[in-house]
Amino acid sequence: MATLDSFKARKTLNVGSKTYTYYSLTEAEKNGLSGISRLPFAMKVLLENLLRFEDGRTVTKEDIQAVAAWLDNRGKAEKEIAFRPARVLMQDFTGVPAVVDLAAMRDGLKALGGDPRKINPLVPVDLVIDHSFVTDEFGTPLALSRNVELEYERNAERYQFLKWGQTAFANFSVVPPGTGICHQVNLEFLAQTVWTRNDEASAETIAYPDTLVGTDSHTTMVNGLAALGWGVGGIEAEAAMLGQPISMLIPEVIGFKLTGRLREGVTATDMVLTVTQMLRKKGVVGKFVEFFGPGLSDMPVADRATIGNMAPEYGATCGFFPIDSRTIDYLTITGRTDERIALVEAYAQAQGMWRTSETPDPVFTDTLELDLSDVQPSLAGPKRPQDRVLLKDAKTAFEGAMETEFRKAAELGTRHKVEGTNYDLGHGDVVLAAITSCTNTSNPNVMIGAGLLARNAVARGLKVKPWVKTSLAPGSQVVAEYYEKSGLQKDLDALGFNLVGFGCGSCIGNSGPLIPEVSKAINDNDLVAASVLSGNRNFEGRVNPDVRANYLASPPLVVAYALAGSMLLDLNNEPLGQDRDGKPVFLKDIWPSSAEIQDFIDRNISRDLFKSRYADVFSGDERWRGVQVSGGLTYDWDNTSTYIQNPPYFAGMQQEPKAIENVVNARILGLFGDSITTDHISPAGSIKAKSPAGEYLMANGVDPKDFNQYGTRRGNHEVMMRGTFANIRIKNAMVTDEAGNVVEGGLTLHQPSGERMWIYDAAMRYASEGVPLVVFAGKEYGTGSSRDWAAKGTNLLGVRAVVAESFERIHRSNLVGMGVLPLIYEEDGVSWKTLGLKGDETVTIEGVGADLRPRQRLTARITSPSGETREVPLVCRIDTLDELEYFRNGGILQYVMRQLAA
C-alpha cells in the first residue's frame, strides 16, 4: 500500500453490500492534476498505478505530475516511471526457465548468507502449460489422446519440476496441460478487468485496474478486455514477481479510430491483418496503441482481443480497448461472478474509465483511422505477419514471391511424383493447414465460420487434398465443447480437422512432422511448399522446417486452402473442386453467412459452458494428478537431467559487483541483416542431430527421436547455449559459399584462423582464448516472441555487446537484463555494411565505465587485419537508471539477489 497520497486520491466505493478502497482519478484531478480526464484510457491506468504506489522513492509526486503533463507533451518527453503490474502470466516454454531461475536464486541467496524463503512471488503468478504439445498424430479420432500421451512422455521431468514449483512457491498457480493457450485462458477466466486485493494491515479491500506482464509477447491479447498488459522477457517477469517495479518510459499513445462495420463475408482475421499492416507502416514500436471511435460500439470483445493479440506483429507495446458495455457482455457470458461484473462497471464509471458513444475522444500523440467497411478478405505472408495480401491477389502474390523471395519462378508448374502415392507435388502446394493459435481460436465468429464452411464442403462432396496435413488445436476446451454441442466437429472430422490438442500449436513450431512421403518429396526436389495457419507468426523456419512459405489466414480460409491444396489456385475465381455431380464448387458457394454464424453462436455458446469448463481448472486430468514431485524449500537438482539444470548465473557471485569496463579487442561473432527475430537467435522448434545441441543430447544418451524441441529444453542452459544463433535459416554474412552467397545456418568464421565452425563452437574457443565477442546486426534486431533465452544465450556465449541499427523493445530490455550492452549507431544510415565490415576486424568499445549513463554516446574503434583503424560513434541503449543498475550488477537477477541479501 502506498505510504503517500499527495493528491488526496484515496476514496471508498460502495458496490452492492461491499465497500472498496480505491485511488480516484476524479479526486486527483480536483487536487492538482488538472485535465487528466482527457488522457487516453491506457494512460489513466498507468496514472492510477502511480497514485496507488506513491512512496517518495520508487514513485514520487513528480512522477505522477509527469503523467498528467502528458497532455502537453503527448508522451514525447522522455520520463522514466516505475510500473507495478497486478499479476504475472507465463506459459511453460518461458515459464520453466523462470522457475529454474527462481530455484537457482534460492540456492544462490543461501550461498550469499540470505534467507532462501525471500525468493517467492509477491504478486499472483499463473503459469499455463500450453506450448509443449506437438501435432504428431492428426486426421484420426485418436489424435488427441495419442498427442497427450506423447506430450507427457516427453515432458515428464519438466512437469515434475513445475508441479514442485506449485508447491514450493507462494502466489504461484499452474494451469495443467490440455486446458488451453495461456492467452485464451487469461481472456476467458483469469483476467478480471478490475482486480482486488485484501490488505491485511488495514482490513480493506483495494480495487484497481487489472494489469499484468507476461512471458509471452501475445500477453497483449487481454487488452481487448481492458486489462492493460504486455509481454516482457522472463528476466523482467521474474523481477516483477519479486517485487521490483518495471522501469518504463512514459509512452506515446497512438489513437486508432475505428468507424463502420465489417461487410458480409469479411472476418475479424481480415480486420486484424489490415490493422497490423497499417500500424507497421505507421511505426508504433515502443508505443501504446489505443482504439476509439464509433466502430467499437458494435465490436465484441472476441474481435477486440484478436486485434490486441497481434500487437507484437504491429510492433506496439499494447493495443488497448477501454471498458464499455461490450466488456460487461463478455464478462457475463464467460461466467465471471455477478459481484465482479458489478464492480467493473461501477469502478470504471467512478474513475472516468467507462466508454460510451458519447464519450469525448481522448488526446493522443497521433491518430490514424480505418473504416471497417473497407476491409477485404486477406492473408499475410509468405514470411511476415505485416505482409498482407488480398485474397483476390493471393495467387499472383505467391507467384511474385517465387520470383523475388525464393528465386524459383522458372520452376512453377513443374510437378514431382510422391513416392508410394498416386499424387504429385509442386511449388506452392499447401502441405499444412492448421486451425491454431490464441489469435483466432478465441473468437467464436471465425471458429463457427470454419465449422460451417466444413459442413457446407462435406455436403457438396469436397475433400481435402491428400498431401495436406490438417489439424485443429483450439485455445480452450470451451471451443471443443461448442463444436461438439453444435455438431460441427463431425464435419471438421470428415475433412481431417480432428482435434489434436489444446495449446499453442503450429505458430510456435509445434506442427509436428509432415506426411513422411510429402516431406521427402519437398526435400528431394527443393520445393517451396506452403502452410496456411490461423496463427500470428509465420517467420521463416518457424512453422515447420520443411515449409518455406507460410500464410496467416482466418480459420475458414484455412479449411478452404486445405480443400484447394495450393496457393496457385485463385479462390475467388477458380473452383475448389467438384461436387458429386461433377459441377464446380466455388468458395462463395460454401462460405457461411454472418446471420448463420450468429445463430449458431446464440444456440451453442452460453455462460454455463464457460463456468463448467473452468470450474476446476487447476486440478487437471488423471495424468496431471499422477505426476509425482520431490524437493522442499530448494530444488533437488538432478545432474543427469537433460531438461532441467542449475544455471551458472550466480556461480561465484559476490555481494559487491565488479566494476564495468570497456570492451577491448573483441572479435565479431556474427554479421546479421535486418529483421533478425528471437527465433533466429534462439529457435523454439526441432533440434537437428547435426547441430551442437543435437550432439550434446546424443552424448548424454538421448536418441534423436526423443530430442523434443528447443522450447521444451529451456530449463537446460547447456542445450540453449548450443542452440543460440542456431536457426536453420539464420544468415551470418561472414560465411559464404564458393559463389559468394551467404550460407544459411548457425555458422561463423573463427578469427584470426578463418576456420568455419558452429557459432557455439567458435564462442567456446574464443572463451578459452579469453577473447570477448560482439555481434553486429541491422534494423529491428530481436523482433518476435519475448524470448529471454535469446538474451541469456547471447550472454553465455560471451557476447559483451550487440550493435544494431534498431532493436525490438523487449529484446533490447532483455539484453540489458542479462548484462549485454545494446548499442545503436549515432547517425542514421550507418550500418556494418556501409562501414564495409567483413567480420575479421577487432572491436574496442570505449566509455563503458563508472561514468556510464543511459543513452550515453560511446565510441567503437574498429581495426582491420591490415591495421587500419576507424572510430564509429554509437549510442548506449541502456534507457533508464534502473536498467543501468541491472547492467552494473551483471543482470537484473543478480541485482535483485544482492538487494535481498543486503
UniProtKB/TrEMBL annotation:
What PROSITE patterns does the annotation carry? ACONITASE_1
What does this gene product do?
Answer: Involved in the catabolism of short chain fatty acids (SCFA) via the tricarboxylic acid (TCA)(acetyl degradation route) and probably the 2-methylcitrate cycle I (propionate degradation route). Catalyzes the reversible isomerization of citrate to isocitrate via cis-aconitate. Could catalyze the hydration of 2-methyl-cis-aconitate to yield (2R,3S)-2-methylisocitrate. The apo form of AcnA functions as a RNA-binding regulatory protein. Catalyzes the isomerization of citrate to isocitrate via cis-aconitate.
Task: Show the InterPro entries listed in the entry.
Answer: AcnA_IRP_Swivel, Acnase/IPM_dHydase_lsu_aba_1/3, Acoase/IPM_deHydtase_lsu_aba, Aconitase/3IPM_dehydase_swvl, Aconitase/IRP2, Aconitase_4Fe-4S_BS, Aconitase_4Fe-4S_dom, AconitaseA/IPMdHydase_ssu_swvl
Superkingdom of origin organism:
Bacteria
Q: Name one Pfam family in it.
A: Aconitase_C
Gene3D superfamilies per the UniProt record, alphabetical: 6.10.190.10, Aconitase, domain 3 (3.30.499.10), Aconitase, domain 4 (3.20.19.10)
GO annotation (BP), single = tricarboxylic acid cycle
Q: Which family does it belong to?
A: Belongs to the aconitase/IPM isomerase family.
The scientific name of the source species is Salinarimonas soli
**Keywords recorded for this protein, A-Z:** 4Fe-4S, Iron, Iron-sulfur, Lyase, Metal-binding, RNA-binding, Tricarboxylic acid cycle
**Highest classification ranks of the organism:** Bacteria, Pseudomonadati, Pseudomonadota, Alphaproteobacteria, Hyphomicrobiales
Every copy of the Aconitase A/isopropylmalate dehydratase small subunit swivel domain together lies at 695-826
Annotated Aconitase/3-isopropylmalate dehydratase large subunit alpha/beta/alpha domain residues:
76-565
Keyword Transferase carried by entry: no
Which cofactor names does the annotation list?
Answer: [4Fe-4S] cluster
- Give, as in the UniProt entry, the pathway in which the protein acts: Carbohydrate metabolism; tricarboxylic acid cycle; isocitrate from oxaloacetate: step 2/2; Organic acid metabolism; propanoate degradation
Q: How does it assemble?
A: Monomer.
Please state what the protein is called.
Aconitate hydratase
| GO-annotated molecular function | 2-methylisocitrate dehydratase activity; 4 iron, 4 sulfur cluster binding; aconitate hydratase activity; metal ion binding; RNA binding
Keyword Lyase listed: yes
> Which transformation does this protein catalyse, written as a reaction?
(2S,3R)-3-hydroxybutane-1,2,3-tricarboxylate = 2-methyl-cis-aconitate + H2O; citrate = D-threo-isocitrate
Q: What is this enzyme's EC? A: 4.2.1.3
NCBIfam families in the record? aconitase_1, PRK09277.1, PRK12881.1
